[in-house]
Amino acid sequence: MNFLAHIYLSGDPGPLMIGNFIGDYVKGNQLERFSPEIQKGIRLHRMIDDFTDHHAIVKKSTARFKLVINVMLQW
Length: 75
Prior knowledge:
Mean pLDDT: 89
Organism: Saccharicrinis fermentans DSM 9555 = JCM 21142
GO biological process, one term: fatty acid biosynthetic process
Strand content: under 5%
Pfam families: ACP_PD (PF04336)
Keywords: Hydrolase, Lipid biosynthesis, Lipid metabolism
Protein name: Acyl carrier protein phosphodiesterase
Helix content: over 70%
């Protein structure tokens, strides 16, 4: 689902979408190997991940899922 969300949030197809799609696999200084438009997509990917990782609603939802999983494991 992560890939679908990143593709959807890219908007129009093209290099930006490609960068957003491959963002999980490009680490640190590897960014410079890509064209400026793909770099924008990779940066967008990182911004989306940072936003969702630190958003209060996502943290609350994650805590709920952990609780449900723990309850299921106890049964």
